[in-house]
Amino acid sequence: MSRRRRRRDGREGILSGNSLSFTNKRVSKNALFTFWLGIGCLLGLVILVLIAVVTKGGLKLAGGAAGCIIIVLALFGVLWGLASYDEARTSQNFKIPGICLNIIVIFLGITFIML
Fold first, then answer.
1. What is the band of 21 on the pLDDT scale with cuts at 50, 70, 90?
2. Straight-line distance from the first to the last Cα atom of the chain, in angstroms, rounded to the nearest whole number
3. What are the distances in angstroms from CA 99 to CA 67, 110, 113?
């Protein structure tokens, strides 16, 4: 059974058993956007690579343009994540993986275009 208690500084904490938690950090919408943009770009890049393998390199200009768009979106995701990183009252749980996913997509996309 858990009870909520108000601390002297106004924050609420949860008292359950022997564990005490006084954090109210929420997940930022910007962090979720960065994370899901990274996952979407990664899936788009994987689909693009699979199509390129199936067509034996027959994508030509369309494949390169799609790869460039994915790289630009991933760069936007990195910048969005870095801009929202300073929010002190939110949890960092989705910001760091989102930024890392977007950086990985940028490197994989550049590698894909170079092939």
1. very low
2. 59
3. 19, 17, 21
Residue 15 to residue 21: CA distance in whole angstroms:
7
Backbone angles phi, psi at 24, to 5 degrees: -120, 20
Residue 72 CB neighbour total at 10 angstroms: 13
**How far is Cα 76 from Cα 102, in angstroms, rounded to an integer?**
9
- What whole-number distance in Å separates Cα of residue 48 and Cα of residue 75? 18
Whether pTM exceeds 0.85: no
- β-partners of residue 12 are 6
Specify the DSSP class assigned to residue 57: S
Question: Which residues sit opposite 4 in a β-bridge?
Answer: 14
